[in-house]
Amino acid sequence: MVGVLIRMKLAVQRNSLTRATAARMIVGGAAGLALAAAVLFLAGRGYPHAAQRVDLLGAALAVWTAGWLLGPVLFGGDTTLRPEHFALHALRPRALATGLAAAAFVGVAPAVTLIALSGLVVVAVHLGPAAVAVAAPATVLQLAFTVLCSRLVTTVLGQVARSRTGAALAAFTSSAILAALHSGWILEPLVRAALEDGLPRPAAAWLRGLPSGWGLSAVEAAGRGDRPGVLAALAGLALLTAACAYGWALLTRRQVTTRPSGGRAATATLGRWARGPVTAVAARELRTCTRDLQRFHFVCFALGYALVFCLLPLAAGSTDFLPWTGLVFALWMSAVSANLYGEDGTELWGKIMIPGAARHDVRGRQLGWLLVTAPPTVLLTLVPAALSGGSVPWLWLATFVPALLGGAAGVTVLVSVLRPVPLRDPHRRTGGLLENGTDFTQVLLMLLLTAATAAPALLAVRFGPAWAGPVAGPVSGALLTWLLGRVAVIRLRRTAPELLQHFRTGTPPARRRRVRAAPPPLVPAGLPALPRPAPVLARLGLDTAPVGQRIYVVVGMTLCWVPLVAQGVVPAVMLATGHVHRSWFLALYLPPALRRPAITAMIALGLALLITSLGTGLYHLARSRHRR
Predict the structure, then answer these.
(1) What single DSSP character describes residue 355?
(2) Would you tell me the crossing angle of helices 50-75 and 201-209 to the nearest 10 degrees?
(3) Helix-strand-coil percent breakdown of the chain, rounded to 5?
(4) Is 371 a residue whose pLDDT tops 90?
(5) What is the radius of gyration, based on Cα positions, of the chain?
(6) Which of 129, 179, 236, 565 holds its CA 20 to 30 A away from the CA of 162?
(7) CA dist 548 to 542, 553, 613, 627, Å?
């Protein structure tokens, strides 16, 4: 069974290999090899203290194991062979679990992980022959534990993903990883100090106590001649690996033999405050945020991102980000709420049949979004600002909070009408959290538009008198809520039938008409049909673009935020508020006379990258639609 499933996995991967999957495999393998080389470099370079090499390798292995455990939550795991595929076959669950476990070690990721874990052998070379002898079995056990524990965690998350607990867990995990990637630069002084002086003893002991460090503890114990320590570490790692394999086997048997539950219908009554059509829609939005797993997942994601992004700098002794926690939460709530009508699916027919329902629905959604977002935003602004212990920019907060909330309430419904992503109807979904319609371009568009709505308030507080900001913030927020909501109402009234057809078929009406009018392509007999472009590239309009322009669009839209936000907007806000923390901000290391020109140059560079890459993508998207 083991050999059969391994050959089956290789055959499926070989037969389903396309240019896009090959490119992703090559890029992912190259990135993994680069990270594995970095781990080997940490294990082999010279250090002033002997224990420093072991401490840093323990930290690297902990991060690597965390990537295996949490990576499938963000990017999806290896689903080439799933237990459900064998539900109708007469296979013993134990034999199936054994075969799937063996097949899990076949692939690029386990091979790259084995290279990274060979850092144990590199460290053992500096500790003596006994340590080298122990490093080989420790590496094998550490690899087995990492892969099997990852499968166990992924399966457990898949089992609980259809509950609010699973939705919250997945949201907080993914948001913590994303926020740590965005604000991890603030920890650069701690990383530099660790590379120079080593980790503090409590942190080093904590890393050795994690299962990711048990193999390293065995190698270290062998180096000092501690045989009981070697046996204890290896035996514990072997038992924990066996427990992960046994737990995964039990869950695999459950996946094969248990049918999914159909659930039960929920009943509810409107509150006393929901007496009109607008408030009734708002009450429905409030209930949806707690009962719909996708909506609940999005709220938890925005909350987790704001907390991690603004609390992580506390590890470096900086409290500058604490007052802005509420604004970060509101910004991400707007970004993940841009598909309100797409999530409801064909329920849109009710707005078409009921006169005046479009205006009530749009205004009710705006009110519901504000009721969900505004109280946490205010709470996350006041409490962290009061606990920051330093001078708080209350003038800026009083200006930006109402301006951003009002602008986001208008942008959310407008983008939901102008650029919806069709989904299955709620009663047809399986409950999986991967069935969400928020894509990268939609999130990017919402972040840009929502931030732009605060521009009038920013100009007022920056160039006007002291009272102009707190006045301009609420006024501009209320005006944008009404104006953008009005545009959304008009657009919904005019295009509701087309949107309904879009939600039913998944194809925009204009594109569908062009496809029907175009003659079918002629393929000569004996020649294979042209390969279909990758769905993501076709959706972005880059399926016909040259390779160089594809790379430029992806790299430009990914890296433009470094000079624009990290090296431009953030140090500009620091200089304006007086809370200067140099960290890795290039402009803050320059003389005072050159700081503002450097910040301006960084913002200009980021805008240039953003505008040119976005313009190139939109140009090819327009050409692609015209050809179709």
Answers:
(1) T
(2) 50
(3) 80, 0, 20
(4) yes
(5) 27
(6) 179
(7) 11, 9, 12, 21
